[in-house]
Amino acid sequence: MSQTSENTLKVAHQGFKYFTHGLATGEWNDFLEILTEDFNFWFPQGKYHGLNVGKQQAKEFFQYVSQAFNTGLTITSLERVTSNETTVVFEFCDEGNLMGEPYKNRVAVSFDVREDKICGYREYFGSNGKSN
């Protein structure tokens, strides 16, 4: 494995740890600190559907996520981690309450890494939010 790949994995795994904590607690500061100022993210639906740019937009998005899952969202299993030189994809199962309704899903998120920061995020989910 190249030094670049090792660094990408290290940064992404740290970011995923912060991301998991943010989902569970609504505390996003550590995750936001690891993002570049020009961070961009893609989300598949709702208010933030499509491409979003900037760390401030990310802060608003993740606060919105915490409001929607106001009792927290728990990652119940990490199914797979796949990576290349600049991107790491985490596939996982999660559950919680979405706006008061039971929620379960299988999700994939990718982190793009530049040096020691995360510069991009994409989220993919395809089930109806109630799958196993």
Written account of the structure:
- The chain is an alpha+beta fold and 132 residues long.
- The protein has a single domain, classed as Nuclear Transport Factor 2, Chain: A, CATH 3.10.450.
- 32% of the residues lie in helices and 45% in strands.
- The chain has helices spanning 3-25, 29-33, 55-68, and strands at residues 35-43, 50-53, 73-83, 87-98, 101-114, 117-125.
- It has a 6-stranded mixed beta sheet.
- β1 and β2 form a beta hairpin.
- The longest helix has 23 residues, at 3-25.
- It is globular, with a radius of gyration of 14 Å.
- The model has no long low-confidence stretch (mean pLDDT 92).
Salient structural properties:
Nuclear Transport Factor 2, Chain: A; 6-stranded mixed beta sheet; alpha+beta; 32% helix; globular; 6 strands; single chain; 132 residues
SSE inventory with pairings:
Layout: H1 3-25, H2 29-33, E1 35-43, E2 50-53, H3 55-68, E3 73-83, E4 87-98, E5 101-114, E6 117-125
Parallel strand pairs: 1-6
Antiparallel strand pairs: 1-2, 3-4, 4-5, 5-6
Can you write the helix and strand succession as a string?
A: HHEEHEEEE
Using only C-alpha atoms, the radius of gyration works out to 14 Å
Question: Could you give the order of strands across the largest sheet?
Answer: 2-1-6-5-4-3
Domains counted in the coordinates: how many? 1
Note the total helix count. Answer: 3
**Structural class of the secondary elements?**
alpha+beta
| Fraction in beta strands | 35-45%
- Fraction of residues in helix: 25-40%
| Average pLDDT, all residues | 92
Any idea what the CATH architecture is? Roll
Can you identify the CATH class? Alpha Beta
| CATH topology title | Nuclear Transport Factor 2, Chain: A
Cα separation of the termini: 34 Å
